[in-house]
Description:
2 copies of one chain form a homodimer.
Chain A lengths: L3 H11 L18 E4 L5 E10 L10 H17 L7 E8 L6 H17 L2 E9 L4 E9 L16 E5 L4 H10 L9 H8 L5 H9 L5 E5 L3 H12 L2 E5 L10 H6 L7 H7 L5 E6 L16 E8 L4 E4 L5 E3 L12
Parallel strand pairs in A: 3-4, 8-11
Antiparallel strand pairs in A: 1-2, 2-5, 3-5, 6-9, 6-10, 7-9, 8-10, 11-12
Helix pairs in contact in A: 2-3, 2-6, 4-5
Amino acid sequence: MHTEQQLIQRIARSLPCAPGAERVPIGLGDDAAAIALSRGANIVVSCDAFIEGTHFLADGPADSAGYKALVRAASDLAAMGARPEFFLLSLALPNAHTGRWLSGFLHGMGRAARQLKMSVIGGDTTRGRIIAVNVTVLGEAAFGDLVTRSGARPGDGIYVSGRLGGAKLALELIRRGLGNRRRFGRILRPYLYPTIRGQLGEWLGQNHVASAMMDISDGISTDLARLCLASGVGARVWGESIPCVEISPRIAAQMPGLRLNPLKMALHGGDDYELLFTIPPERKDKLRDSPEFSELTQVGEITPGQDVLISDGDGNFRSLKARGWDPFRKG
Amino acid sequence: MHTEQQLIQRIARSLPCAPGAERVPIGLGDDAAAIALSRGANIVVSCDAFIEGTHFLADGPADSAGYKALVRAASDLAAMGARPEFFLLSLALPNAHTGRWLSGFLHGMGRAARQLKMSVIGGDTTRGRIIAVNVTVLGEAAFGDLVTRSGARPGDGIYVSGRLGGAKLALELIRRGLGNRRRFGRILRPYLYPTIRGQLGEWLGQNHVASAMMDISDGISTDLARLCLASGVGARVWGESIPCVEISPRIAAQMPGLRLNPLKMALHGGDDYELLFTIPPERKDKLRDSPEFSELTQVGEITPGQDVLISDGDGNFRSLKARGWDPFRKG
């Protein structure tokens, strides 16, 4: 058994990595890579695999697969403070999925592309025994405006956008066969048609407000640990301040016998694509001018050391285990 | 049933395409796309899917899979006259392939990367029911030095590098269970560890010698038809001048009962990664200064109209059907 992190380390050890900060200011290990081109131009690039059986089900809504494949890749650029402009679509398909399924997929992806104002510029199409999608996204950005994972410092506040756990709740509904019910549309949306925080990410980068940033794609317990590792810091998370998904009594009644714990969903549920970022104390006031300010919540602070802790309601801190989504972990 | 070309057309119709030649001088439909960045810089980018069961076998040599996945993606940039510098590796793997198989794969890919002087700058790693690889390659190039598929004009000579059909011959050996025999190593190499014509491609671009260019990844019968379609021209191919793979009596004896036709292998066999390019008559003399000149062969000429014809030994021309590799065609 391997974790995704271990695999990435093996790849980094086995392959020639970027030739130096002059040419590749941001390489392996962040949400996206930045290449410094001639004459001071910079391109930011990232790719995201989206695989049948791992990220989506072949018998699920095809337009959701297309929508989400693009949005989640674009989120990696937003999480650097860069605007995603272009994408390449690599698509392996069984013959049985080249008809209606593909039409739905392209319909969903086209909708996402128009919303994000992105254009397809290339790709590859081939046959495969399962559906395997890869989306590569690119955007131009000034290097100085990019926000990496590694800039958090002790004393910085930790913030998240939106509410966490919504995609996980939707997934639980879908797993229980409630995914097709029209009346749950609003609740299913965060999983099927997630939105990303592009405007907020760009603002935080261009105004040099955030010291570190990433998107919460695998659950904050896992992603905050990654940010802390990259920055060489620890964190204290205020458990009671985490903005959790709201579970109405009507929804809870649909899943009797299941203990739905909003905090656990918020901490460990993946697929939220909200932003996780840190702000130095002296820049905290600037945050009021940000887009979507009312949807931002401080959930803790960066500490020296390397422990990532979370408080319970009584003010006691315990270790926050990284229990977010890892494709290589079972269960 | 769909051909790959039809799928690409559906994608182009369904998704917002590049916003215009000013920002994306080369978009969908060529070997790679070019983005014009600020201050006159250009980036060239392409991606290539490499899927278990379609492009390689999971029980074949893992280091060949890694080597080839990178080389064939890099070939798309060489075929534009651009130098591939960076790549992103997207890798979906079954748990059973995260150990020894992955080590072999990375070993092969690392070897290719060092040979090509390329660096990995990012990627994605996830689980999948089959092995699904996508490699995105990037390089910087002056837009004026890039050679597209669409610049061929009537009267231009048609050239290829190297010999064609070698990968197809190797594949036939492998299919007959002769793929592991040490004494066939040299013959298997074009399929397992193909080389690309990076130096030649760059020279043809930088010296503005070629009017159109692409790599022969799916067989010249299919790829020349694509080049002609993109350029709005036809072609006459001199069948007797095609540089075909040589099949020694020793090899032929290994495959009794099989009629090995070197010309058919050269015309329709895929995976060769040689360059196919056109040269206007007035630039023909410049070609003598090219690297690997002795390995270049003129195989025909571009004509008005849209017919792609091939001559037999008696000087009669018949239609050259595109019978190269199409992942969506059976057989």
